Amino acid sequence: MATAQRDVEAEALGEEIETLKEQVATMRKTLEIESSTVLSSSTALATIAKTLSSPPTRRNRRNPLDAALPDKLLDRAEQQQAYAQQCLHRIVNSVTAFKVRDPDPHAVDGGSVLGLRFEIMSKGQFLRPYYVMLNRPFPSSKHLRVHRHTVPPAIPLSGLAARHLPPPAPARENPPAQDLDHFVRALRREIVKYHNRLGATADLRRGLGLYQDVREVLSAQSIVDVGITDVEARHVKITWADDRSGRLVMDSDGMVQKLVVMGDQGRDWTTAKELLLHGDDHFEDVAKRLVEQSLE
């Protein structure tokens, strides 16, 4: 009896410790955000300016470090303002064009290269930007061609370039026109869709608690694994605790095209119908139903 009571107390204490750890992590994150933005506030800038304009105090005369502190704070505030302006620019201008020069002495068009920078944000943070470099390798023509890029293989870059940046046709009097604006818009749209699919799958794993090291007692409806099985992040594999497995296929916009669930007795039509209620369900709708079923 005493052993069981101690186990209950130990379990409650462990849960309380985990809760406190989560609160500490949240407070540290909040402190990091507040400390990084406090100097850019109008109140802080006004206080620093007032300190600089006021005559030095007796303490500042004795300690040169105290006298230099407002100048350091002002420099730090200016750096913070510049960083905030940069973040604002990256949010507003998701695509930036710039000119670079190819250092190769044998580069075409004198080494002139047009660079495109694509900004992507996920969960309030900027990801590593993608770059596409364009040059003009065709003689006596201003047509552009993709020279280098850092776009992931899941993005149909070659197809978009063939559609919006076709090469000149020597046999034709009127060469096909290129549309750089449509190419940029279409490419960014595909990149955003790709990251949306990745994010939706990650949110499903997070909602199911698959990122936790220790999970509670599993039931037959509990999902033990969710993973992407292709480079385009359109095929998702789902594994239940009772050894059932499912395959979900969605299009580039995240609309579910097909959902199959297999069990020991063959195809599980009941679960598939419960998850795919309509013919045009979005992956997020199916993910919400998966979380609800897993928590039952």
Structure explained in plain terms:
A hairpin with a 5-residue loop joins β9 and β10. The chain folds into 3 domains: 34-91; 95-198; 208-295, no CATH class. The protein has helices at 2-37, 42-53, 58-62, 64-92, 157-164, 180-207, 269-275, 283-295, and strands spanning 95-101, 112-118, 121-122, 125-126, 130-135, 145-149, 223-228, 235-240, 245-250, 256-263, 266-267. It contains 8 helices and 11 strands. Helix content is 47%, strand content 19%. The mean pLDDT is 84. The chain is α+β, with helices and mostly antiparallel strands. One of its GO terms (cellular component) is nucleus. This is Cenp-O kinetochore centromere component. Its main location: nucleus. Belongs to the CENP-O/MCM21 family.
Total DSSP helices? 8
- Runs with pLDDT <50, length 5+? none
Could you estimate the helical fraction of the residues in percent?
A: 40-55%
Biggest sheet architecture: 5 strands, antiparallel
Number of strands: 11
How many domains in all? 3
Q: How widely separated are the two ends?
A: 31 Å
Query: Whole-number radius of gyration?
Result: 28 Å
